[in-house]
Amino acid sequence: MVKISDIEIGEFPLLLAPMEDVSDPPFRAVCKQNGADLMYTEFISSEGLIRHAEKSVQKLDIYDYERPIGIQIFGDKIESMREAASIAEEANPEIIDINYGCPVKKVACKGAGAGILLDLPKMQEMTAEIVKRVNKPVTVKTRLGWDESTIKIQEVAHRLQDVGIKALSIHGRTRKQMYKGEANWEPIAEVKNDPGIHIPIFGNGDIDSPEKALEYKNKYGVDGIMIGRAAIGYPWIFNEIKHFMNTGEKLALPSLEERVKVAVQHLDFSLEWKGDRQGLFEMRRHYTNYFRGIPNFKPVRTTLVESESPQEVKETLLSIPELFAEAVV
């Protein structure tokens, strides 16, 4: 059983990666229903939290059905991160997570996210201060390094373990790679197999099928896998991976009716959480993924993304199985 501190998260846990503008409560709800073992919020700006910015504060919303859950924060100022960690802890998650991996220019080039990989002493000091500040277990998500010449992930792991983090998730790319190229899991395996590392190590990057998940589990020996983009519009991936690992057999792909059912659930959660206008808007990015592979779907997608009526959107979704009854997807 893998544990983060005293929190049991499964024999080989599957984690939902924190993704900006994706990993909100409605999306997390359908991922949890479909087998995610541990999930994280979207990353939350420490500066936004300490200034009580509405968008940042709303990201603290968590629900009992999501547990265990981690709240992820990011920033470049140690004092702000300390304060933000305290605010996040008041929302009562199981875990406080620190983002040391975001590659986006406006974050990384200011020294936050993956930017801190260029200043390991500061990363260690910031982490130590957060661990001392909160009573919840602290975890970290990071990347291999800033670029190929600065891959020091084993040193990073030791520094962070030394100051008290309870788990480390590693994306197998550098900041310079962004999301391009193939994720390199060899350095992740080196961290996991380091005899001086005793905390759980989770691998992240390019896991998009049950077969690949099992292959990477066996090949790299990680304690669990974090899944990001492959879950967008396809929350079934968590249960598909678990079933394949347990039985060696692949689950049948979700039917069109099942896709519609989950998309409607996701929509209902979104409307409830954000209200009609924002809830509709935030769902628009998901429809292409829920119905990927359906031929001639574009006109229906247009209706889904342009309509401002929740009822019309729901009716359009419910009409999809009949409209595409002959489609092979």
What does this 3D model show about the protein?
α9 (210-220) packs across α10. The longest helix is centred in the last third of the chain and has 28 residues, at 256-283. The protein is 44% helix and 13% strand. 45% of the residues are buried. The protein folds into two domains: 3-247, TIM Barrel (Alpha-Beta Barrel), CATH 3.20.20.70; 256-323, Non-ribosomal Peptide Synthetase Peptidyl Carrier Protein, Chain A. The strands form two sheets. Strands 3-4-6-7-8-9-10-11 form an eight-stranded parallel β-barrel, surrounded by five helices. Strands 1-2 form a two-stranded antiparallel sheet. With 329 residues, the protein is an alpha/beta fold. The chain contains 14 helices and eleven strands. It is globular and about 60 Å long.
